[in-house]
Amino acid sequence: MTHSPTTTADVVVIGGGFAGISAARDLSRAGLEVILLEARDRLGGRTWYRDSPLGRPLELGGTFVHWIQPHLWAEMVAHDLELEPSPGVDEVYWIMGGKVHSDSVEEYSALVSPGMAGLTEGARDAFPMPHQLFPMSESALAADALSVTDRLDQLGLTAEQIEVARSRWALSFNGSPEEGSAAQPLRLAALCGGNWQLVSEANRAYTVAGGTGRLVEAVHEGSTADIRLSTTVTAVKASEHQVKVTTSDGATVTARHVVVTLPLDILNTIEFDPPLSEGKQTAAERGQVSSGVKVWMRAKGRIRPFIAFAPDEYPLTMAGTEYEIGDDTILLGFGPHSDKLDVTDVKAVEAALHQWRPDIELIAVDAHDWTADPLSGETWAMPRPGHLSTEIAELQRPEGRVRLAGSDYAHGWAGYIDGALESGRRAARHLIDELTRVAR
Ligand SMILES: Cc1cc2nc3c(=O)[nH]c(=O)nc-3n(C[C@H](O)[C@H](O)[C@H](O)COP(=O)(O)OP(=O)(O)OC[C@H]3O[C@@H](n4cnc5c(N)ncnc54)[C@H](O)[C@@H]3O)c2cc1C
Predict the structure, then answer these.
(1) What is the pLDDT of residues 349-362, one digit of tens each?
(2) Which residues are CB-contacts of 286 (< 8 A; sequence separation ≥ 6)?
(3) Residue 293 CA to ligand 1 centre (angstroms)
């Protein structure tokens, strides 16, 4: 006898990235019945550690983690996971005024410091408690009215200092700093005690030993949620007493509440009835800044460890050595616009790398284009001007039985794995309070 799958639950969670699996775990541990619907055939969402044709497992999505990220670090400790330090570099290349420069890390740091320090000065005043965004300070609101490049132009820097700082923020936004809120550098620095060097360290210095797949398993541990992979949600219909969730095969699941963890740029791909508030819809239409790519490259021969930066008019804003493999080297690169670099085309990626290093010959490349992927539509969420002042509070506001969770909607490390955990756990906490209060 076959059993048809259960079609009712206390909570349906849509999406099995870190927000979805942390919410589902906390809710199910509290004794609630949870069904998690995930369109992909795996958990982990925008993190994906898998074997690569380049010859070793690689992280195709979210990678770098740090103990300064509280929700992430709590999971690392609770599950006895360790960090793996990233390799160091001997030299830095950068493009300035259309020309390639190279020097020691110290020389490059002296050039980039004024822009980085200028953009992050006053971070602790702007975001005095960065894990509680509200109420937002006057200085954060003022910065959020400007783009990163507007703000750089106000700092009295030289053209060279502006250009190298722009390159760094093009990498951080995985897009154009012209489109990024000047409040975001302040917010990130505030999360790091005002120290911009620590922001850089959090962005690059450590990975999860054994890969983010281990973190996915760890966060999922102890969950009794009913996980349904390869199940794409198309519609969410909420009434006074329940929510009906419809999937692409026409099946429905009903629940008392739903947690939607879709990234902002694809939020409008689900049909909501009643529609999400105008504020949420407009924020999703406007979207966030990241529209880039991450690409792994296998290059011939051993290459002296380096890192390279370029402004966002170039197809790669960063590239650097990462691993040695046999007699070859594996490099990592990021580009700001997925439509300007075909990351499956080894010759196109090699030509982009040649902007700094025409001597390097690529053998193969490996990547997943998250921006083109209809289940993500972006890489890591980075705010446009006005997002923090006018959109984020509305995105965080539940509407009846429907609430959003996800890294894109977090208070603290929004855009990072830590933000996904924060937001998923917060959504679960609120629902546990609400549902168990009703039951009492
Ligand atoms: C290339 C890249 C590099 C990154 N680097 C870092 C880094 O170094 N450090 C760091 O901390 N973060 C990094 N990030 C960001 C980090 O990976 C994400 O912020 C985080 O993983 C997002 O988790 P989430 O649960 O909020 O969203 P997601 O992981 O996107 O989860 C949402 C889930 O919803 C599913 N879904 C979408 N539509 C539907 C539907 N209709 N029905 C059912 N399911 C659906 C998706 O398949 C997905 O699994 C990076 C991201 C990328 C892409």
Answers:
(1) 999 999 999 999 99
(2) 384, 387, 391
(3) 14
